[in-house]
Write a structure and sequence with these properties.
This protein is mainly α. The protein has two domains: about 40 residues; about 240 residues, Orthogonal Bundle (MetI-like fold), CATH 1.10.3720. The protein is built from 16 helices and no strands. Helix 5 packs antiparallel against helix 8 and helix 11 packs across helix 16.
């Protein structure tokens, strides 16, 4: 009997115990990651008076929907903001993934004459940019995108970091033999890209798609710069405005007699937690669609053999 066989048998004898330990550690780590969001959700359903008297509790003494009633007083505005955010997230993610993939594929091919120049061009934008004022002038005056959904989509459409990840992914996972086989069969560059390269690049594309989705969903700064129309305000920006209004009422309650009654009925802490739930909850359901490819795409795209 060889030494390797003995070691293999010993390993299999110990594997159930090690599997239990690994699963326990992974389960504890997963609980620590999920617990903050669950705790925020619980607080958002807690009665404001109970929260003020007893503090934060995992199981509150009294449940309440007052925080959500307060936020949903916006009514149609909240639904419009959800619609705007969903629209720019879907459209922006598609545009971002396609543009990043096309750029990254071009600079990943060794036979592309100007690959080094365009790779440096993309990398340079990771270090330096034109600044806030020139960007604002270009978006509002040169392109005329003030109060437009494109003002929320285009600034985040292309990211040099995503391009670099995809370039490494294409160089590692798409061998030149596949490209040559496509050319032998008579396929053009776009045919090779869409029929051969993209099906092999789903992990990398899903990773970049997740990054783009999170970026568009959580963006509020571009709306602060370019959006004045209430019909085009995204969700994050609208929730921020509600938070600012609450803070304004709280700070000026001593000087305005009409604000005292409003302040007493306002769910201050629980409404903040409800904002987190409303802003985070929908995007949580998008993660399972990317989870299958996320780890593989991130690790392969970040490290080149």
């Amino acid at each position: 009997m060889s030494v390797g066989t003995i070691k293999s048998r010993d390993f299999h004898k110990l594997s159930p115990a090690w599997n239990f330990i690994f699963h326990a550690v992974a389960g504890i780590f997963a609980l620590l990651c999920v617990f903050p969001f669950l705790f925020v959700t619980i607080i958002s359903f807690t009665d404001e008076a109970t929260l003020a008297s007893n503090g934060y509790q995992i199981i509150p003494e009294k449940w309440s929907l007052e925080a959500y009633r307060y936020l949903f007083k916006a009514g149609d505005q909240l639904m419009r903001s959800y619609g705007v955010t969903i629209t720019i997230t879907i459209v922006g993610t598609i545009i971002g993934v396609v543009c990043s993939a096309l750029f990254a594929y071009a600079i990943s091919r060794r036979n592309f004459k100007y690959r080094n120049f365009f790779a440096f061009f993309a990398f340079f934008t990771m270090l330096f940019n034109g600044g806030l004022v020139p960007t604002y002038i270009v978006m509002t005056q040169l392109l005329g995108l003030k109060d437009s959904l494109w003002a929320l989509i285009l600034p985040l459409a292309v990211n040099a970091f995503y391009i670099m990840i995809l370039r490494t992914f294409f160089s590692t996972m798409v061998p030149d033999a596949i490209i040559e086989s496509g050319k032998i069969d008579g396929a053009g560059e776009f045919g090779i890209f869409f029929r051969l390269v993209l099906p092999l690049s789903l992990p990398g594309l899903a990773t970049i798609g997740l990054f783009c989705t999170l970026g568009y969903w959580n963006d509020w700064f571009n709306a602060l710069l370019y959006i004045d129309s209430p019909n085009l305000v995204p969700l994050q920006s609208m929730l921020m405005r509600i938070e600012n209004s609450m803070q304004f009422i709280m700070k000026n309650s001593q000087n305005a007699s009409l604000s005292v009654g409003v302040l007493q009925s306002m769910p201050q802490d629980t409404s903040r937690m409800a904002m987190v739930v409303l802003a985070t909850g929908p995007i949580v359901f998008a993660y399972p669609f990317f989870q299958r490819y996320f780890i593989q795409g991130l690790t392969v795209g970040a490290v080149k053999e």
